[in-house]
Design a protein that fits this description.
Blueprint (H helix, E strand, L loop, with lengths): L7 H16 L7 E6 L8 E6 L3 E4 L5 E14 L7 E13 L7 E8 L4 E8 L14 E2 L5 H11 L9 H15 L13
Antiparallel strand pairs: 1-2, 2-4, 3-4, 4-5, 5-6, 6-7, 7-8
Length: 192
């Protein structure tokens, strides 16, 4: 059931609620926090995980770390008159082998207001090579936060924090895809 967002605060609560629910699939304690973004105007906000790098236990008793951040602003909902929605402006999701920057394995980025407008992935490998892989921007499509969580659960075998993780991630991603306003992607107006 769609929850109307008559105010910017309602839109923010709705947006964070679904991302937090997805985050609860891998951590029972991590939270998303919001704050002002240093650029982008009055309504430009940032959403980051706390702790900044979450330590996640894998089934083989090793650990990986996840950092996630999004930048966003509010806009009038184009399909529901008198309502607000959150519009994502950028994202950065990073997986690390340690709590150190040098331990980065993967990073999914989209930051069009910076120097690069396309969605891309960075791959680790910083061992002093002349052409260090992390410097390359491997093209990708838009990556939903839920896809990164599913990647961690399925490929790294991160221990799930919930029995219903697959259902939650599927429902949350389906909802995101139904209501996103990505350039070139418009959803048909509906009340769902």
């Amino acid at each position: 059931m769609r929850v109307p967002a008559r105010t910017k605060g309602d839109a923010l609560k709705r947006y964070v609620r679904y991302l937090q629910l997805s985050l609860s699939c891998i951590s029972g304690t991590a939270q998303f926090v919001t704050g002002p973004r240093p650029y982008g105007g009055e309504d430009a906000l940032a959403l980051t995980t706390k702790p900044e790098r979450m330590r996640l236990r894998c089934e083989d008793e090793t650990y990986v770390f996840l950092a996630a951040a999004q930048g966003f602003h509010f806009e009038a909902d184009p399909d529901f008159e008198g309502e607000w929605k959150v519009k994502t402006d950028e994202y950065a999701y990073s997986v690390f082998t340690s709590d150190e920057e040098s331990g980065q394995l993967f990073a999914w980025h989209w930051h069009p207001a910076a120097y690069r407008a396309d969605c891309h992935i960075h791959v680790g490998a910083r061992q002093g090579e002349e052409r260090a892989l992390y410097r390359y921007h491997v093209p990708s499509g838009r990556v939903a936060f839920e896809e990164v969580l599913r990647f961690l659960l399925e490929e790294f075998h991160v221990e799930s924090a919930r029995d219903d993780s697959e259902e939650i991630l599927t429902n949350s991603q389906t909802r995101f895809e139904a209501f996103r306003t990505w350039p070139g992607v418009r959803r048909p107006p509906s009340d769902s």
